[in-house]
Amino acid sequence: xxxxxxxxxxxxxxxxxxxxxxxxxxxxxxxxxxxxxxxxxxxxxxxxxxxxxxxxxxxxxxxxxxxxxxxxxxxxxxxx
Length: 80
Description:
The protein is mainly alpha-helical. The protein is 79% helix and 0% strand.
């Protein structure tokens, strides 16, 4: 059974935001791969630049690499 454009939109809007974003980018890529790349890379750049600017403004927010590694190791061990 095929969904109408309106039904497809409503079904998509009921998805969690993260899933919606990935689906939207995949759909866009199916129509215009370069535009999808541009949107994805712009989004990534803005989020990374914001994180960098935040750390530059307040270096105390930085997490030492050892702490990050230990956290990943603990999560990895907990999954077993």
